[in-house]
Amino acid sequence: MDAVINKRNARSQNIVANKAEKQVAVHSYINGSFVTSSSSDTLQLINPANGCESITMPAGSELDAIEAVSSAKSAFEQGPWPSLSRATRHSILYKFANLIEQYSLELDRLDADDMGKPIGLAFGNAASAADLLRYCVDTTESIIADSYNSDSGCFIAQQLKPRGVVAAVVPWNFPTLSAMTKVAPALAAGNCVVLKPSEQSPQSASRLAELATEAGIPPGVLNVVQGQGNIVARTLGLHNDVNMITFTGSTAVGKLILQYAGQSNMKLAHVECGGKSPQIVFADCHDLDEVADSIADLILLNQGQLCVTGSRVIVEQKVELELIDKIIQRFRKVSPGDPLDPATTYGPLASRQHMEKVLGYIEGGAKTANLLYGGQRLDFSNGNFVEPALIGNVSVEDRLFQEEIFGPVLTVTRFRSLDEAIEIANATDYGLAAYAWTTSLKTGMRLSAEIHAGMVTVNAATPEGEGSGAISTEPYGLSGVGAEFGIAGLASYTRAQVRWFNH
What are phi and psi of 177, to 5 degrees? Predict the structure, then answer.
């Protein structure tokens, strides 16, 4: 363990040392170069760790988005990218992946700067993004085409072709990795992309665009439009030359994206939205300490700003009090502080507005349930730090149980039987992920079959190192529409054309 910690700290020091290595231009990147926004309006980004002004960036405009779409459309229809041989395109994308890996320290640092991520926990995201791109490149070989001879003697062939222009709207919580979750399969499938990063985390997207050009990706194939989501994302969603839009973010905005797709050219729309994932703990679990560690680690990761975080603890009554005590012990060990200090393990929330929202949930929960631990604003450098909160006796009707908080807030609801546990777990409109802890194979099999979630893990947290994206997932309900990752996710960036030859 000491060796692991030392390695993490050494990497963290390298990230800090590289802070002044390169100043990233926070501008839109269109047709292979940075451009000045058509609007003079700007946004002032606030460092979430200290409340100080950090970056001035363009607010963006409809014209910026339109120009980016035009560039992508021209690159798709007239440029070489879709018509390149698979070997040539794959070689370029492999070079892009290698560059992402080469500059992973810089990309991780940019994300840490934007989001206030503890520097010791920030590294690894860019490397995972590089792995994801390599996986998508390799997997395109598995989804190219299919053919057969019919009984009547006809030859029937199916070809999967790129869709055209793909708009990707991504969130702020894992900027580099979230961007490449969309960009990697889109480019590997032969599409051209307009990437809209969150206005709260713009830097790494601009750097990725530069690296794409350095790798040899032609101008217009990967464009980045900076600015406000209500302007840029809306324009992309309504644009008739966008053939697919893929979005990760809130359920409210996801619904708008689906509406925009329908109101325009009925473009394919994939949306991954909120989550309210359960942690279901049975009394027969093998090691309650391990369970408490896993639950606490996941809700503390990125301060709960993670769509698949297990925010609802649903625990068998026999071990409820013991589990609560163990989770509180874990919460007491967090080390909030300067995100650039390798000793810091707990960072701020993304913005002052988001902090106030989370604190509002906690304040309301203290009135309707039992605040068992934490939930106070932490006084550190005027940053958006909130103490992790544990709230017990939460009913299924409580908004704490039903609504995504997207912060370090863990609720506890007890159960007495397997049937009741399943009923409680499914008592929300969300269905992104679920976690269960039991030594009973029968119980685990039934849970994985009956829980409404795109991903169910039994006796394990979300696996580390799964940035390769080898397994497809598809959410339930308000958590979204459309598969991500794996063969199914990659194939969604293509359209099937059937060719029928009668001879």
Answer: -65, -40
State how many domains the chain has.
Answer: 2
For 171-221, the pLDDT digits (tens) are 999 999 999 999 999 999 999 999 999 999 999 999 999 999 999 999 999
CA atoms within a 13 Å half-sphere pointing along the CA-CB vector of 158: 11
Element (H, E) at 138: helix 125-139
Q: Where in the sequence is the domain holding 259, given as residue range(s)?
A: 10-273+480-501
Catalytic residue among 106, 307, 320, 404: 307
Q: Is there a single domain that holds both residue 285 and residue 360?
A: yes
Helices (H) and strands (E) counted in the chain, each on its own, are: 17, 22
Contact in structure between 101 and 325 (CB atoms under 8 Å): no
CATH number of residue 462's parent domain: 3.40.309.10
Active-site residue, from 272, 316, 320, 404? 272
Residue 2: the pLDDT is: 44
Q: DSSP letters of 101-169?
A: HHTHHHHHHHHHHHH---HHHHTTHHHHHHHHHHHHHHHGGGSSEEEEE-TTS-EEEEEEEE-SEEEEE
Active site (annotated) includes residue 273: no
Q: Is residue 471 part of a domain?
A: no
Residue type, 174: F
Same domain assignment for residues 356 and 230: no
Q: Please provide the size of the chain in residues.
A: 503
Rounded Cα distance between 18 and 22, Å, is: 8
Residues 237 and 155 in one domain: yes
Six token digits for residue 356: 């106030």
Three-state SS for 56? Answer: strand
Residue 474: inside a domain, yes or no?
A: no
Nearest-Å Rg of the Cα atoms of the chain is 23
Q: Using alpha carbons, select from 61, 42, 23 the residue that is nearest to residue 225.
A: 61
Quote the crossing angle between the two packed helices 288-300 and 320-331, to the nearest 10°: 50
- Nearest residue to 191 via CA among 209, 165, 152: 165
Active site residue 423: no
| Look-up of token digits 């792995």 | 131
Beta bridge mates, 195 = 168, 224
Say if residue 45 is in the same domain as residue 87.
yes
Sign for the pseudo-dihedral over CA of 152, 153, 154, 158: positive
Q: Quick one: which of 439, 430, 437 has its CA closest to 314? A: 437
Q: How far is CA 466 from CA 24, 99, 125, 381, 494, in A?
A: 28, 20, 11, 35, 23
Q: Is 475 within the bounds of a domain?
A: no
* pLDDT tens digits for range 391-422: 999 999 999 999 999 999 999 999 999 999 99
Q: Do residues 295 and 189 share a domain?
A: no
d(CA 443, CA 122): 36
d(CA 121, CA 14): 13
Measure the CA–CA gap between 191 and 207, rounded to whole angstroms. Answer: 20
Output the six-digit token pair for 357: 């929202």
